[in-house]
User: Fold this.
Amino acid sequence: MKPAMSNMKQTDPDRLQTLLQRRQRLMGNAYRLFYEQPVHIVSGKGVWLYDSDGTKYLDVYNNVPHVGHCHPQVVEAICKQAHTLNTHTRYLHELVLEYAERLTNRFPDGLDIAMFACTGTEANELALRLARAKTGASGMIVTDNAYHGNSWAIAQITTTYETSEKRAENIVTVPTPDSFRGLYADEDQAADKYAAHLQTAIETLAQRGLRPAAFIVDTIFSNEGLPKVPEGYLAKAVAIVRKAGGLFIADEVQPGFGRLGTDFWGFASQGVKPDIATMGKPMGNGYPISAVVTSAPVIDAFHKHSHYFNTFGGSPVACAAALAVLDVIEQQDLQAKALETGNYLTEGLKDLATNNTLIGDIRGSGLFIGIDLVRDQTSREPATAETGKAVNRLRQLGVLIGSTGQYDNILKIRPPMVFSKSNAELLLEKLGTALNETRSANDRL
Amino acid sequence: MKPAMSNMKQTDPDRLQTLLQRRQRLMGNAYRLFYEQPVHIVSGKGVWLYDSDGTKYLDVYNNVPHVGHCHPQVVEAICKQAHTLNTHTRYLHELVLEYAERLTNRFPDGLDIAMFACTGTEANELALRLARAKTGASGMIVTDNAYHGNSWAIAQITTTYETSEKRAENIVTVPTPDSFRGLYADEDQAADKYAAHLQTAIETLAQRGLRPAAFIVDTIFSNEGLPKVPEGYLAKAVAIVRKAGGLFIADEVQPGFGRLGTDFWGFASQGVKPDIATMGKPMGNGYPISAVVTSAPVIDAFHKHSHYFNTFGGSPVACAAALAVLDVIEQQDLQAKALETGNYLTEGLKDLATNNTLIGDIRGSGLFIGIDLVRDQTSREPATAETGKAVNRLRQLGVLIGSTGQYDNILKIRPPMVFSKSNAELLLEKLGTALNETRSANDRL
Assistant:
């Protein structure tokens, strides 16, 4: 690293500009940065990130460092194994077996086999290939505001982003389940309405001469804005898909590993068992590892004609990192803590809402919370611009947060699982300031 | 790790059986293991791998540990950065810029932008999406014995494996360039014959109403068996594709990073400049990192309607590992050493061939060498079964090697780049033994 660069102060706009120009020259235009004034992070610890200026930020966004940035137990496991051996799954190694055992033990009976890749995209790719092989069908049903990854086939089912890539005819969408506004605001009828949409999707496929291979959802509908879905919604939807011969793929990349507090997996919180579950981001606390968990019949159908190899997937170092993450989750009881801290934070947010009309709804579970910002409490008009302002103001106030949802009006709280009550209090304080300022600015308009 | 397991002797068939059964139960049937008697590797250093029994193996196969298993400089870089920070490219970080600069400096002018992913599959996925966006076309031209990865779209262009997944109509194949047998054994006409196949492929696409988006090849045709391609072959082929509006994607996952000795990249050894280059395996010496290198116009065409984010791609730890790999390559002059050791090994192999009629041909460059085994020197009938025997016998003799090619009759020599002359001598000795035994066994038939 060049000394001039590493001493760069982020507050110096010329130096920031130099860094941004260098980035655009070397990495091109297709990447995005967070925040109007991008953050130049140089170190991290627990829930804290530090920029080149020495400024400390509370990380309320990143779920990849699941047990905290640079957790010493995970770092130690990575270093120890990287010093010893890092190969692949075409040799025998015990760590991958130990991890597969620990991981599948976390699943209901029948979901007892794990296969490994490096990213959530790759896990969803494998799930898609498994589902197609098992069903002999190609149809994919997804919600219309989903994120599942960045490869060609997965970008096709990632409906949240605009793309010039024409969606193939095997992909059909169902409306985003939004319990707060739109089609489904009447909760009594919502589950049946959703189910009817699944039926329509299957009929649309049939009109194209296709059958469903799978219905895939993020089981807390992260990108859809963490809607409160009515009880039985997912079970009803899955039953319809299964009746038509399709599988249910639970994308646990965001909700998984205890984040929801109530359950270790999102599908469990919905009371439905998937045919295939995929997981990624938090597994290795930042070390690239992802997995597919499924049953022998699903794998055997694929294996009739294909096999699978992923060079880095399930490597000894990846598994050492992932085992350490499971250890920390268990030793520190992070699932229970996520529930407790999440409830505490939610109560604080409700208090905040009594004084701030921008807050239309507070949703989510454990340490995965969405704050739906509205321009008007009655019309529930999404406060999209205000959300952007709040996100950027919070960054100035030392809190890194993001936004989500089909109107991008939902503040997304998804911190490392070691997030404490005092972290929650700091967030509430800064959030109060940012939202009050945003509201005041609106009032002045 | 359970003590009983970690003390397991590989020579104990009961314990090996237990491990195999445990693996099948936990990881299913879709994975393959190397060798009739799988190896249970527990540690590695340089070109050496050690099994649970303490047996030492010369690693002649693995290109992922490019600068040697557990190279201390790379491990140290990983540990240091993992202790400090591991986030993503939506914050500014200098390591990704420093690496992008070092990497693109290794490319010809115009190939000056790097984008990052985790695996070769993901790099090829991104390349495919870029090529489709740039050309507005969908046709993909590949050889008929290619390996490019494991996702849905990349498995479609991975023609070496049987699969039940019907190849989409946008994919057309050209015959594997084999200079040693078959269609192209007459070298004088080979380049024109190959070019004609490309023309036919483009016409096939046209008949389907499609245009070529890209022609993608591993630039040393690794999986095709490292054929000696005639001078100008690739240039002629690429010219035809470009005339039809398609791009040329150089898959450098195997040949890249100096392995060929003569050049840092395979495309340079073929005297042709790609529109997009992809790379993976050796980049991080086992830490998952891959990249696409291309030009601004290609990225900008994609960026008109899409953006790209890969959670772990280009992370600070990945870039620290990759920078350390480049440092070691440069400090130890590994490209020049690959050429020198590769030439020394090739001479030794030629000597071996004078005494062993199984050796039909010796091909490749630097530390990427193929030994084409034949049943008969005149007919050049591929010695497929004998190759399998030799691979398994070498494993017993303490040498880990693999095979490749459309007839799976080519011993594939692709060791870590720190492979020395004395390593080469050991390989020659053991190879001599294994091939003599294999030949003798054949003679007795």
User: Anything to note?
Assistant: The mean pLDDT of chain B is 93. Chain B is about 40% helix and 15% strand. The first strand of chain B starts at residue 41 and ends at 45. Chain B touches chain A through 103 residues (CB under 8 Å).
